[in-house]
Amino acid sequence: MQKLLVKYPMPNNWTEVFDKGIGRYYYWNMENDLVSWLPPKHPKSIKCQSAAKLRENRLKMKEREERIEREKDHDKERDSDDDERSYRSKHSDRRDRDRDREREDRRHRREDRHRSKKSKKDEIDPMDPAAYSDVPQGTWSDGLESNKTRADSTASGVLYQQRPYPAPGEVLAANKEKTKKK
């Protein structure tokens, strides 16, 4: 490098600076912050801003672009809100018609569901004897003996409702009769 400095001497406002990162000298103009890898008077010398300055300028540009983009987005949102308001006012009649149509559709669906429930109730269960013979359709208790209810008729009151099993006294009496017969 010393040979280059002898051949191409540095102007007064330039200085030689060692870059520890790459282990080389570069040349820096202290007045306007331009840098060069070769002495400034060398014919192949390219003078440009330092990496730190370029980085700083790029950061400023990026921040400015982001700010402009945010302003554009804000303007678009404001415009879309205005458009939506005008759209709403222009199309309120259509919206009302659509809402009425939806209500009618819901009412019809409800009625259809109600009709289908009735038709299901009217259908005969395939396991019901009335479905495959001349027996009239009945309830689950039709055909059971009616003289015994199989419920305790002695229990009464709110807490003692009739139980679906015989009274203990009836069971004892029935057991006593069975033992007498044997």
UniProtKB/TrEMBL annotation:
Protein name, UniProt field: Polyglutamine-binding protein 1
InterPro entries from the UniProt entry: WW_dom (IPR001202), WW_dom_sf (IPR036020)
Annotated gene: PQBP1
Superkingdom as given in the UniProt entry: Eukaryota
SMART domains tied to this protein: WW
Composition bias, Basic and acidic residues: 53-79, 93-105
Localization per Swiss-Prot or TrEMBL: Cytoplasmic granule; Nucleus speckle
Organism of provenance: Anoplophora glabripennis
GO cellular component: cytoplasm; nuclear speck
Subunit structure and binding partners: Interacts with POU3F2/Brn-2, ATXN1, TXNL4A, HTT and AR. Interaction with ATXN1 correlates positively with the length of the polyglutamine tract. Interacts with RNA polymerase II large subunit in a phosphorylation-dependent manner. Forms a ternary complex with ATXN1 mutant and phosphorylated RNA polymerase II. Interacts (via C-terminus) with TXNL4A and CD2BP2. Interacts (via WW domain) with ATN1 and SF3B1, and may interact with additional splice factors. Interacts (via WW domain) with WBP11; Leading to reduce interaction between PQBP1 and TXNL4A. Interacts with CAPRIN1. Interacts with DDX1.
SUPFAM superfamilies (UniProt xref): WW domain
